[in-house]
Records
---
Amino acid sequence: MVMIVIRTQGGDSLPLVEKLKNLHGLLQEQNEVVLVGVGAQEVVHEAYRKLTASMDSGRFPSELKVFEGLGLWRCLRDRQMDGFGDVGPIGARIAAADVETMIELLGGRRSAAPARSQWNKNQDRDRIILNCLDRAMAREMVCEELDKRTISTLPGSCKKGLHTWKGAWQESVGRQAIQQLFSKLIKRQKAVKPLDVSE
């Protein structure tokens, strides 16, 4: 089992979003369950405090509900500790997806959005879909997750006036296109590495 520790740069603390991106990168390198070290726990708590404080700045309470529903946050909130103060275990891929959501909720991704290519956006979309499918989420719930993260729908759906994944899923033509995308991603994942069903 791996313990995730947040690094610092030159002894100075990095900006919060950079620390979250650091944590996200560390988690993505792991395929198994992990323990979250004290430093990483503090970064997540700092993200929660910042989001809570921003409620007075016009952010919607629904964003806080999304944060509080994340598995990584619930794990920290419930203090599932070992004898050394490390929290867990939690699946690394689940935790990585949750940290990605935290970055989005704090606006880290939106600020860089104009510079992001369509290719990168598609990679984000595909990673979210695979993370959800790895968690055995129902496909309609995967669509809801994509909508929560404001991921653009497929071009064909947009042309038909279907601008949400859930809306597209409820239409037969849209559902067929989404099913094809999901199947393509699953086949691609299997071609790259064996599907890990141990979690």
Note: Residues 1-115 form one domain.
---
Amino acid sequence: MTPAKRTSQKEKMDVGEAAASFVACPRCSYFLSGYLLLHEDFDSAVNESTDGWLLLSWNRSVHLLVQKSFGSHIYMNLDSFQGICLECQRPYSYQKVEPETEMTSFKVKIVP
């Protein structure tokens, strides 16, 4: 096995480890709790994560959850936005993928 393959396998977390990484921070645990109530895709986001980032669903409810959790207001007419949790410095990123179709990506780092 090559070193590159070992590194990529080490970066993969199971769902429990990924969820536990959010618990230490009050803002991030609030975000994760709310997200889990809104969407059922957290497990698949963890399994498909690359480079330690979760690609999560985005809609109006998640938009409000980000605002309440992290204190960041992401204006819907922005093409992109990058922020960090004020408590643990976990980065997150919003980006319109295709403005004409309203497709949007929202990523959050698994481990801050």
Note: Strands lie at 53-56, 80-84, 91-98, 103-109.
